[in-house]
Amino acid sequence: MSLRDLSVLYLVAGICCAVAIYRSSPAGGSRAAMSAALAVPLWPLWAPIALTAKRAVDVPKGAAENALVRVKTALGEAVAASRGTPLASVLPAEAAARIEAEVERRVQRHAELEALLRKDAFDLGRAEARVREIERASGSSRALATARLDLDNVRRLSSLRDRDTRALEELCALAEALRTQVTVARFSGSSAADIGGIVSEVQARVEGLGAALEAEESLRAEEPIET
């Protein structure tokens, strides 16, 4: 096989790797294009790194998924600790399952927001830079208004994501405190009334999350975000 044939095969392999990297990239847009372009001349070195990095992003659990695991673990242990005691009437398995289902809904929404905000189109820095660029160039008022609207929408999405993160973390702490209190009540012989307060607080917090989520989804359906 001649050097020319080897060069053609090398180029074809590079193009195939570039296509695979671009299509599998979670970021999309210019970042994916740059990563794919780099693979054409350097595919033996770059392709394994780029494709492995994609899998590394997918495998580890994020903060929201970890929150769901923590809530499920805490509630499961609390239910187990109360089983066979008067405490079980305050925290039945059915109530724990409802709490878990509501938390899972919020985690799913959080994951969707995270995926959106990783895209170039929803990058906060890009949106801010676009507004500054138009302002420096003294662009038209319509172009500036559109850029500012885009920035406001991206900030709104970021705010929703951050609020979900805080709410889930607070709920984790509350569920873990509930587990501890149920365990203490079991071994100290306390009555169900002693844990009723924190159980009610967990349920109220979860119901609040669900109501807020439904209200936001209804509003989003009526007034979709413009970009």
Determine Rg (CA atoms, Å).
25 Å
Please indicate the percent range of residues in DSSP E strands (runs of 2 or more): under 5%
Give the distance, in angstroms, between the N- and C-terminal Cα atoms. Answer: 53 Å
Main pleated-sheet profile: none
Fraction of residues in helices?
over 70%
Extended strand count: 0
**Continuous helix count:** 7
Succession of helices and strands? HHHHHHH
How many distinct domains?
A: 2
Low-confidence stretches: 54-61, 222-227
Q: What oligomerization state is this entry in? A: single chain
Shape descriptor:
elongated
| Global structural class | mainly alpha
How would you state the average pLDDT, rounded?
A: 78
Describe this structure in words.
With 227 residues, this protein is mostly helical. It folds into two domains: 3-58; 63-119 and 156-222. Helices cover 83% and strands 0% of the residues. The chain contains seven helices and no strands.
State the main characteristics:
single chain, 227 residues, mainly alpha, 7 helices, elongated, disordered C terminus
How is this fold's topology laid out?
Blueprint (H helix, E strand, L loop, with lengths): L2 H22 L4 H30 L4 H20 L10 H25 L6 H13 L4 H48 L4 H30 L5
Compact summary:
The chain has 227 residues and is mainly alpha-helical.
